Amino acid sequence: MTGATRGIGREVVAQLVAAGHEVLLGARDRAAGDRAAAAIGAEVVELDVTDDASVARAAQMVRRRGGLDVLVNNAGVPGHACDATEIDAATIRAVFETNVFGVVRTMHAFAGLLRASAQPVVVNVSSGLGSIAAAVDPDAHVDTVPVWVPALHYGASKAALNMLTVQYARACPWMRINAVDPGFTATDFNDHRGTRSVADAARVVVDLATIGFDGPTATFTGDHGTVPW
Ligand SMILES: NC(=O)c1ccc[n+]([C@@H]2O[C@H](COP(=O)([O-])OP(=O)(O)OC[C@H]3O[C@@H](n4cnc5c(N)ncnc54)[C@H](OP(=O)(O)O)[C@@H]3O)[C@@H](O)[C@H]2O)c1
């Protein structure tokens, strides 16, 4: 589970541990990870998704512990809200580094371990703001957009993550891989302006993390079912 020191990620770990699963709580900051894990009863794996060496070390640690069945790519950054024309390449690259290339790093590093699992499952924590169908629908995101709009760089990064999800699913039929939209959730991510609780948001992620091999792949799911791509 990447990015699990706080917010939705920490709550996903808590719900999975409560359901009896053995969970590694991913943290780029060891002390923050230890604090979060102590309250939940999980083990920490140090993992910064922007750092190849860190992700490779995390994969080695997981291999030494015996492997993994489920990878949840949750780590994400919003980027700063600003006018679209103020966004330069460096700004968008920084958001993609975590939200898109971070997932490519973990998929690259953990693919061998996932392949060794009897029922490998990946969940990519996306966003409704990554839905191109919603972006062109004037009635969509009416609750979110007026209060929080880093939509150009953030939305583009999650749209890219959605396409990665589908392409990994096509290329790797031996695993289940799905994107989820946890909904507009009150966390540090949006200065707690979100309207959903982390408990509700985490349930969407947990549902897709605990599917069996007869479960779906290449889907985009939110609280109300399928989210349009
Ligand atoms: N909140 C919402 O309304 C909402 C809606 C839709 C989708 N999402 C998605 O849900 C996911 C979690 O969001 P959240 O609201 O829980 O955000 P959050 O409270 O800001 O937590 C973000 C988590 O990601 C970690 N992280 C950031 N950069 C990282 C990196 N380079 N390597 C490893 N971990 C990193 C953070 O670790 P540190 O503590 O070290 O910073 C933190 O644990 C994100 O992917 C976000 O895009 C959120």
TrEMBL record:
Specify the domain of life of the species encoding this protein.
Bacteria
Q: Show the SUPFAM superfamilies listed in the entry.
A: NAD(P)-binding Rossmann-fold domains
Keyword set, alphabetical order: NADP, Oxidoreductase
Instruction: Name the InterPro entries on file.
Output: NAD(P)-bd_dom_sf (IPR036291), SDR_fam (IPR002347)
**Is the Amino-acid biosynthesis keyword given for this protein?**
no
Q: Which family does it belong to?
A: Belongs to the short-chain dehydrogenases/reductases (SDR) family.
Question: What is the protein's name according to its record?
Answer: SDR family NAD(P)-dependent oxidoreductase
